[in-house]
Inverse folding.
């Protein structure tokens, strides 16, 4: 089957965990009400968790890749690699080989594979991943020797033809397939079950463990934390049983008024789902998957709806069938979990035993926060906000007063976000600053070319329909935010 990336990061609204039911207590998560992020992952003898720690004892999974493979000396992520829940921790730096016969070869018969890169591989052990067609699992190869070539052979899926090789290309042979034990292995297993929800973990053969997803037991489908159409957070279907729809992507009718639901490498999904994270307009809906459609449409501008011709490989589209009431899905309620100084782990709960850590809350600023680098490259828990700025939009014609933009509107009855998160670049590396929100700006906007320019480059800019703009108030000193330190278990 198509490989499924089961890498997990305990981040806001992305990853979920739970604690054991009363009749199942082991070395997994702690008791209800005592959860912390490290209850939902555990280092083993080979795989070590990469975490961000604070002076007050918080251990939060580092953004990016949770696991570090000490045998291969590089980060890795779990990927489905066989039947029966078998997974492997695949190195992050992985060259790609097209599925099937496609790709570059050393011979006219297209049997000896080559990989063309734009730069030399750094020292160390490197691998290549051969893409999987639907119904198959990917295969992995060692990177072979560097060779010098002016021509190669390319298979386009039909024929094998000689092609020139750019002098700048670095050409490597495809080495032998990896042997058992090259990558750390694990198994997806159900760990706990309560209130119609079960929690599934990956148990690594080295003793590591990681929460992966919740499962709706009655419907036998993975489910995730989303705002349902009744205004409550519920565990709604996700994963291979589900086709997802967004009217902005595809429609089933030539007037672009009825969403088409897409699924990749799924012959017949069971659910058609539209997901929403907005508490102001909870619009997540679940239907039974309807009939398959072979022609879909896409909006191409004001009043224009045309056939969609660029369709991702192995993607099929379906109509929505009968609606499934939101109330039939398990409700997830907001809970406060463990507190570490001014930072509190917040989560969702289903019943009495299941606890889902979903984010970190700064109790002093009264806002959720995320560990990001400041200008000095130190990790700080920056306030999250619907307001953001890259300091490219301004309230004045001299481009000296930057504004923040709110692309995701808050409720009409709610005040605007109290903070503005600013992303700034030094060369290509971003860092962050935070400001208190200033006055709303309803006047004209101006912009300067991204990355700099001079005041003379300042020019009028157009407003985005539905967006709100606010001036930046007083900056929040980065040193006043909670500092984190990247570490490895």
């Amino acid at each position: 089957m198509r490989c499924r990336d089961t890498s997990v990061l305990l981040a806001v609204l992305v990853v979920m965990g739970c604690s054991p039911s009363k009749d199942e207590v082991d070395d997994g998560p702690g008791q209800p009400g005592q959860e912390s992020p490290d209850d939902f992952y555990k280092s083993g003898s080979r795989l070590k968790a990469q975490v961000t720690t604070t002076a007050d004892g918080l251990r939060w999974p580092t953004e990016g890749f949770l696991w570090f493979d000490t045998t291969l000396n590089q980060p890795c992520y779990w990927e489905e690699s066989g039947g029966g829940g078998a997974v492997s921790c695949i190195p992050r730096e992985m060259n790609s080989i097209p599925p099937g016969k496609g790709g570059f070869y050393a011979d006219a018969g297209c049997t000896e594979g080559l990989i063309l890169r734009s730069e030399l591989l750094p020292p160390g052990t490197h691998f290549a991943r051969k893409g999987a067609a639907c119904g198959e699992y990917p295969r992995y190869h060692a990177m072979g020797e560097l060779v010098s070539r002016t021509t190669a052979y390319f298979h386009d899926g039909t024929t094998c033809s000689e092609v020139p090789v750019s002098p700048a290309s670095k050409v490597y042979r495809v080495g032998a397939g990896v042997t058992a034990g090259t990558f750390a292995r694990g198994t997806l297993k159900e760990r706990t079950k309560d209130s119609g929800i079960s929690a599934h973990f990956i148990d690594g053969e080295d003793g590591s463990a990681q929460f992966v997803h919740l499962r709706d037991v009655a419907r036998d489908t993975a489910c995730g934390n989303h705002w349902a159409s009744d205004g409550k957070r519920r565990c709604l279907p996700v994963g291979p049983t589900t086709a997802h729809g967004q009217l902005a992507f595809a429609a089933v009718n030539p007037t672009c008024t009825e969403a088409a639901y897409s699924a990749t490498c799924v012959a017949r999904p069971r659910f058609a789902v539209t997901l929403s994270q907005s508490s102001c307009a909870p619009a997540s809906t679940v239907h039974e998957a309807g009939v398959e459609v072979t022609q879909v449409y896409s909006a191409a501008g004001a009043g224009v709806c045309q056939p969609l011709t660029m369709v991702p490989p192995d993607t099929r589209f379906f109509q929505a069938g009968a609606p499934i009431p939101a109330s039939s899905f398990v409700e997830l309620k907001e809970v406060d979990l463990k507190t570490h100084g001014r930072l509190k782990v917040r989560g969702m709960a289903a019943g009495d035993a299941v606890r889902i850590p979903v984010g970190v809350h700064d109790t002093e600023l009264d806002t959720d926060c995320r560990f990001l680098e400041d200008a000095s490259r130190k990790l700080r828990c920056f306030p999250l906000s619907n307001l953001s700025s890259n300091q490219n939009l301004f309230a004045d014609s001299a481009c000296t007063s930057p504004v923040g933009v709110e692309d995701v509107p808050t409720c009409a009855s709610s005040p605007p976000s109290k903070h503005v998160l600013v992303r700034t670049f030094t060369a290509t590396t971003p860092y962050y600053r935070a400001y208190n929100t200033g006055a709303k700006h309803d006047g004209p906007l101006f912009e300067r070319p991204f990355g700099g320019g001079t005041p003379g480059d300042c020019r009028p800019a157009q407003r985005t329909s539905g967006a709100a703009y606010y001036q930046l108030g007083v900056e929040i000193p980065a040193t006043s935010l909670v500092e984190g330190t990247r570490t490895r278990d």
Notes: The mean pLDDT is 85. The first strand starts at residue 41 and ends at 42. Residues 224 and 235 are 5 Å apart (CA to CA). The chain is about 0% helix and 45% strand.
